[in-house]
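Record minuted for everyone:
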Amino acid sequence: MATTEDWERLLGEQIRAARLAAGVAQVALAAQANVALGALKNLESGKGSTVRTLVRVVRALGRSDWLEALAPPVAVSPLAAFEQSQRNRTVRARRRVSRRQDRPR
């Protein structure tokens, strides 16, 4: 299993590769993303960064799809699913009670 440092390094490599593929210098990307050059260098080298820097750089590279892949929309709220299961449990319990009352003694 990858460590946090491994993920930071991998993300940095991916950012750097995307920047180089786009033919953009670090100075230009930092200016375009509105981040400090040092912050971009830290991000690319895997030395850590803020989420804000990561998001700004990724968006400046035109790779918002990466961010969307990290946070896909939730189709069902976990809380709503839990509440529904509780309602279903209550309905089943009521049915059991009503069946018992319907049986001849």
Observations:
- The mean pLDDT is 86.
- The first helix runs from residue 4 to 22.
- DSSP finds six helices and no strands in the chain.
- The CA atoms of residues 95 and 101 lie 10 Å apart.
